[in-house]
Amino acid sequence: MNAAGFPLLSLLTFLPLAGALIIMLVRGEEETVASNARWTALWTSLIVFVLSLILWISFDKTTAAFQFEEKLDWLPDFGIGYHLGVDGISVLFVLLATALTPLCILASWESVTSRVREYMIAFLILETMMIGMFVSLDMIMFYIFFEGVLIPMFLIIGIWGGARRVYAAYKFFLYTFLGSVLMLLAIIALWYAAGTTDIPALMQFQVPVAWQPIIFFAFFASFAVKVPMWPVHTWLPDAHVEAPTAGSVILAGVLLKMGGYGFLRFSLPLLPQASADFAPFIFALSVIAVVYTSLVALAQQDMKKLIAYSSVAHMGIVTIGTFTFNQQGLEGALFQMLSHGVVSGALFLCVGVLYDREHTREIARYGGVAKILPAYAIVFMLFTMASVALPGTAGFPGEFLVIVGAWASSPWVALGASTGMVLGAAYMLYLYKRIAFGKITHEHLRGLKDLTAREVVIFAPLIVLTLWMGIYPSSFTSFFSASVAALLQQHEAALSVARLAGIN
Amino acid sequence: MEWKLALPEIALAISALIILVAGVIPKRDTSFGVTMASLGALLLAGGLTLAQGEGSAFGGQYVADSFSTFMKLLAIAGAALGLMLALDWNTKQGIARFEFPILVLLATIGMMVMISANDLMALYMGLELLSLPLYVLAAFHRDSGRATEAGLKYFILGSLASGLLLYGASLVYGFAGTTNFDRLADAFSAQQGISAGVVVGIVFIIAALCFKISAVPFHMWTPDVYEGAPTPVTAFFASAPKVAAVALLTRVLAGPFGDTVAQWQQVIVLVSLLSMVMGAFAALGQRNIKRLMAYSSIGHIGFTLMGLAVGGESGLRGVLVYMAIYLFMNLGTFAVLVAMRRDGRALEGIDDLAGLGRTDPGMALAMAIFMFSMAGVPPMAGFFGKLYVLLPAIEQGFWVLAVVGVLSSVVSAYYYLRVIKVMYFDAPVGAFDARPAAVSVVLAGTGLFTGFMFLFPAPILAAARSAVVAILGAG
């Protein structure tokens, strides 16, 4: 059947759902239910993570072909099938999702006290949707998972969020939904043109050049909102600020990657001509995003909002890299997405640590934290450095590769992207300075406890990952090199066919 | 014997009469027994419908094919679920009378005749047999001013629609010389041009049927009637008769008027567009959940008509699949509405659902599934309903319809989300009374269907496909 000998991807996708069903069946006292729900969710997500390590070990890095494939008929009348598989582009995102989910569950261990059962169910369903989205090789299935994410996330923000949670939840849902329905129309149009929704089959299909721009923009509407790109990024700061810590982690860590992944999976290979034609447009939006949101981040008073804006800037780097159409740029974009997933997730967890103790995210309410919480300050500093792309941390290889790639397309774009690095250093260091250094102006902060054992367990894997990605990035880039090369080769081939057709 | 084809209708009619007599004779309240007997009769009719052969009867007035089987089963299911919802409600409202189930049975016979009609006269008879019990049902809570108003309003506007239908039918008869669907189809396919009189007739017929399915611009009665009528009656109104009327519209337009598609297509396109937009925007400001559902049903009908406007095998299949899914998710939603009762008093405000996620997690979960489904969020059934309508729409190049359809579903997502928001994000205002067993059964059934349809879509698709082949083949 596949390299694992059993339907690994189906298992990964639906095991969290089974965990959710088990939690749903738990009955009894509120306390016992909460504790059972926590442990069941943790164990489920850990088992899923361990299973996903099989992907890490037995993934064949030398080929760009889809691996661990599973295929069943689902709606044969319409040419829609149940088709799962991973290639170099998607495999690490699956691992990112499986790795972050148990950490999120641990992070919510004590901070979520009301409706624990529902919370854990929502998180496990969310994990199913995320994994399912990355492993789907059928467009309709992809769409189902892509949209299905909205349901648990809407509830997580709306039920366990902060003061303006309702507004944020609505905004998140409606923005994404609006983009997605347009993508649905594009998917249907592609289905109609090609007679199938199978992604590998579609990659061999040449979408008529006349159609490409409109389909491109329909996909763009969905992915740009999800990434999010300027000017449709405004849902993100609201959603991040209001979501509970773990919700922000998943949002920044995985959900934003769905947009970048969509560009790589659909826009580039299926619509090569339109992607090439509109690359300058994407560059313009991305550079604006990088510079503008960095400046906005400088002015923030709320820690989460600051990191949210920094996410928009970092994702701007990703979209620049994606549309450079060269090996460095694309690998940089992929690496940046992974590193941003780890680093911004970790930063939100850092904010969560302070928020759990002080119940405020306002920067001015802190100061001199390094003297009170030394261990925390070290951890926070590491992730701050990773966020400003200090060499040796996870943030560096991605941004560097993207800038190199962008230089090949246009030095101006590279300049814009590197501005982001400089501004990034400014707002992150300014944030760190205001929180960790200086005099202890708020005396009650002295009573704060440093990292607990649980928090150390949460941060340890993230620290290891951040350093590993920074010091030896090849163990990650080797996963996607072959797939990126194949993608580019196909892109070039498609463009030259179109060029020949244009000449004749 | 060809009359055997109509055995389901005949059996149901005889059962209704027997039950009526059996209900009248005892001196005590017989509503429970009568409801049970009526459910049995519906079950019997459903079984006979499944078993009946295909063919036409009564001089070509009546046709039984896989299309009629599909739609009749939906109508019967809608009626049965509606009856189950009414059982407990009527007792608590003090309107438990044995006539109620019998009226539902009679309306069901009307629906079945409509679905099987193969002649404009049979169509009219079926429609009237459906409508008259519905008028009474709307005003069934006769001491309530709102219910009486609803019944009267529905009666006046319904009669107007019937008049329009008769006028249209007579015009068509006058210009084509027949009322039989098969012969009408032959006449139109042979004719070179379509005379203006026929076009006017068709438009009148469409207008009358649009009234029955409450499509814009013939929707004005819907919110008032939905709000005023007792909730289980509204549940029934919003489900089974709609299915029957959509079936009728589909059969009429695809069958006898199939060759005049150029004349009616633009009308349906316009009605569909207006309904989708109206359903989305008008519901935004509603505070009464029954009015909300009224506008929501208008929007869903707009989506259904998109499939009809597109036509062809896949378009009509979309209509059928959408109707089937709509029927169940709608009845499920109304099951929740029926259970909205605190201290014995029925509630209708959206805000009354506040905190349902805590006070009754099971019902809140079901309601959330229905709301997400109506908004068209995958993997709920409603998404697939929309998908099967959008697929042919784009295939045939109806871009405007498709784009307006999805955008209006984004707008409507706002008010569906509001229900979820009220249930899950707001603080509880107190628990509802224990929900009746029948409501729980309906909730569980429709909830499972809506939530898990994606696992087994093939049987519904296959049934809808063969149903469509039946009418297109006949046309």
TrEMBL record, chain A:
Record's keyword annotation contains Oxidoreductase: yes
GO cellular component, one term: membrane
Protein's cellular compartments: Endomembrane system; Membrane
EC number: 1.6.5.11
One annotated GO biological process: electron transport coupled proton transport
UniProt membrane topology term: Multi-pass membrane protein
EC class name: oxidoreductase
Main location, first listed in the record: membrane
Pfam families linked: Proton_antipo_M
GO MF term (any one): ubiquinone binding
Keywords: Membrane, Oxidoreductase, Transmembrane, Transmembrane helix
The NADH:quinone oxidoreductase/Mrp antiporter transmembrane domain, residue ranges: 136-423
Domain of life: Bacteria
Transmembrane segments: 6-27, 39-59, 79-107, 119-135, 141-160, 172-194, 214-236, 248-266, 278-299, 306-325, 337-355, 375-392, 412-432, 453-471
Family: Belongs to the complex I subunit 4 family.
Annotated protein name in UniProt: NADH-quinone oxidoreductase subunit M
Automatic annotation (TrEMBL), chain B:
One GO term of the biological process aspect: ATP synthesis coupled electron transport
InterPro entries in the record: NADH-Q_OxRdtase_suN/2, ND/Mrp_TM
Annotated NADH:quinone oxidoreductase/Mrp antiporter transmembrane domain residues: 117-411
Molecular function as annotated in GO: NADH dehydrogenase (quinone) (non-electrogenic) activity; NADH dehydrogenase (ubiquinone) activity; quinone binding
Pfam families, alphabetized: Proton_antipo_M
Top-level enzyme category: translocase
EC number, as in UniProt: 7.1.1.-
Membrane topology: Multi-pass membrane protein
GO cellular component: endomembrane system; plasma membrane
UniProt entry keywords in alphabetical sequence: Cell membrane, Membrane, NAD, Oxidoreductase, Quinone, Translocase, Transmembrane, Transmembrane helix, Transport, Ubiquinone
Superkingdom of origin organism: Bacteria
Main localization category: membrane
Catalytic activity reported: a quinone + NADH + 5 H(+)(in) = a quinol + NAD(+) + 4 H(+)(out)
Protein location: Cell membrane; Endomembrane system; Membrane
Annotated transmembrane regions: 6-25, 32-50, 70-87, 94-115, 121-140, 152-176, 196-221, 233-254, 266-285, 292-312, 318-340, 361-385, 397-417, 437-456
Quaternary state and interactors: NDH-1 is composed of 14 different subunits. Subunits NuoA, H, J, K, L, M, N constitute the membrane sector of the complex.
Role of this protein: NDH-1 shuttles electrons from NADH, via FMN and iron-sulfur (Fe-S) centers, to quinones in the respiratory chain. The immediate electron acceptor for the enzyme in this species is believed to be ubiquinone. Couples the redox reaction to proton translocation (for every two electrons transferred, four hydrogen ions are translocated across the cytoplasmic membrane), and thus conserves the redox energy in a proton gradient.
Family: Belongs to the complex I subunit 2 family.
Protein name: NADH-quinone oxidoreductase subunit N
Species this protein is from: Rhodovarius crocodyli
Taxonomic placement: Bacteria, Pseudomonadati, Pseudomonadota, Alphaproteobacteria, Acetobacterales
Gene: nuoN
